User: Fold this.
Amino acid sequence: MTAFNRTALVTGSAGFIGYHTAARLLAEGWTVIGLDAMTDYYEVAVKERRHAMLQQNEKFTAVVGRLEEPGLLMNLFEKHRPDVVIHLAAQAGVRYSIDAPRSYVEANLIGTFDLLEAARAYPPQHMLLASTSSVYGANEDMPYAETDKADSQMSFYAATKKANEAMAHSYAHLYHLPVTMFRFFTVYGPWGRPDMALFKFTKAILEGSAIDIYNHGDMRRDFTYIDDLVSGIVALVEAVPPQADGRKEEPEAFDSLSPVAPWRVVNIGNGQPVQLMAFVEAIEKAIGIEAQKNFMPMQPGDVPATWAEAQLLQSLTGSRPETSVDAGVKAFVAWYRDYYGV
Assistant:
């Protein structure tokens, strides 16, 4: 079956990652049903602009509504019978989960449950669900591998995402639904979220305001450029986890494939942690202005470093993220200046 007669349901399609994923699928000939709640966690106008651009393609259908709205997902599955589901909708943000934990229960737990129930009723060929590198929590051994134990989440956001992994595994086992979970590592790029560091730093520097640098700059992140991330997501659509019964070969030692379900988890990250101060320097270079800096202690729920092992992604898709921070930041700053006219 070619992309030209395949349908994908993309949740969170007006979000940063969802928009780029839907756009890539449309470019490859897919029919895309895009669901987004248009919540006001950040500037709704940005989300509306993303959806408006997607709607320029006649093969995109926009649906505005919450995952947890009774019957919404079941009706979408019944009507459109998606071949593939890419679940990116969620209440995001480590720090916000301290202030508004109930929103994470509603969107991330109840919403994902409703999605799994709809998939049980109308099974797609493959479900791909977003998790996060934050599930590794207090793990200190790096790089983080998918086969590492990850039971020490340090934020409620991360806890809900780890719960999503477990929920999806149970449905994969009970109902033979093929599921791939993504663990994303600090995604950035054009059309990014205003609550993320790159967006906030760029805005502050251009306005002449100081930027807050946590843990006094002693932090490392595995920054992943959005185009690389989307390439990984779309490539993994075809890497459907096999059913547990009748497997002819044992998985590789680094493969997170479940022994009892068609389920696996895959890191999507650059595999190259970057010091926070080097990231700030890349922003200063792209803008041409040196930042004023406020050095702050570590925030609750945060971790000092992230670093992805990308061997499984490479094995399944034949590629891995490779965009440098300098190139990715430069592309973001160019987009920011154009979008906001600064």
